[in-house]
């Protein structure tokens, strides 16, 4: 064994303090030269590099693997993961949805066995009923994408309930939510939750606007006005609108910002009417769409752009270091 490699293996899981001139401190992105012309995982891994060519982190940061030696082009020595803790790989690939970056590639629970672009580890809650088309199989479609999707009508929304989910989608709500429940939603979003809202199930300003607005109010967003129809063909540049040219919008509402400067209009109906707004809020995100037709079987099952929209939404609503999947 080359002396340099032996030194590296002996010092695995300790800060990079080697005096060896061949091992550089953790200041650059490239793989470190171990002196024998190869890179190494530092002795804790299975001997294979876990740095796939597509493992660029969304934040541009690098991740520690073992505290000693970089094992790939986007990893580096001595830096912690997003929790600040050193990352020790427990598997050459991501294995389980457990909130742990199993392979230390910088992404927590990045699993998509079906290759459908929707992370299998997402825990999704649809709040309320599917709306006027009762035959909707939307949640089953989400389950078929590998996610854990459930439809719920929680008697009480609080922190412990929301903590079970990565993404919550407000569907046709069946009751008004209290200010305390709206505050719980807001706190959960700020802590990293992804909230989406749909509406337009009915013309009723109470259930279709007032109830969701009660939840969205603290976030400065609201539905308003009379029923509108599209399709939506005016998309502004945003991660949620990539690849979109036309999306069904049948009997929905304008989405307005009630607190200026926090949200971005990402899609518009004819007449420059906002049909969707997106907001980064603390560590979390909010996406409000003015209609609900995108959840119906007739849309996601037949129209590729609806599938694209949902894939965009889930990708964007999820924290950048969680469930992120390779592009393409
Ligand atoms: Ca991972
Ligand atoms: Ca994991
Ligand atoms: Ca999937």
Topology order in helix (H) and strand (E) letters = HEEEHEHEHEHEEEEEEHH
Walk across the major sheet and give the strand order: 4-3-5-6-12-11-10-8
**Which percent range fits the helix content?**
10-25%
Q: Ions, cofactors, ligands: which are bound?
A: calcium ion
**Total of DSSP H or I helical runs spanning 4+ residues:** 7
| CATH class categorisation of the largest domain | Alpha Beta
Structural class: alpha/beta
Q: Span between N and C termini? A: 41 Å
Characterize the biggest β-sheet. 8 strands, mixed
- Uncertain stretches of 5 or more adjacent residues: 1-81
Q: Whole-number radius of gyration?
A: 23 Å
Beta-strand residue fraction: 15-25%
Report the average pLDDT across residues: 79
Q: How many domains in all?
A: 2
Give structural notes.
With 328 residues, the protein is α/β, with parallel strands linked by helices. It has 2 domains: 1-94 and 102-106, no CATH class; 123-317, Class I glutamine amidotransferase (GATase) domain (Rossmann fold, 3-Layer(aba) Sandwich). The chain has 7 helices and 12 strands. The strands form 3 sheets. The chain has an 8-stranded mixed β-sheet with strand order 4-3-5-6-12-11-10-8, with helices on both faces. Strands 1-2 form a two-stranded parallel ribbon. A two-stranded antiparallel sheet has the order 7-9. Strand 3, helix 2 (138-144) and strand 4 (148-152) form a beta-alpha-beta unit. The longest helix is centred in the last third of the chain and has 14 residues, at 304-317. The protein is globular and about 55 Å long. The two termini are 41 Å apart. One calcium ion (CA) binds at residues 94, 96, 98, 100, 102, 109. One calcium ion is lined by residues 94, 101-103, 105, 107, 110.
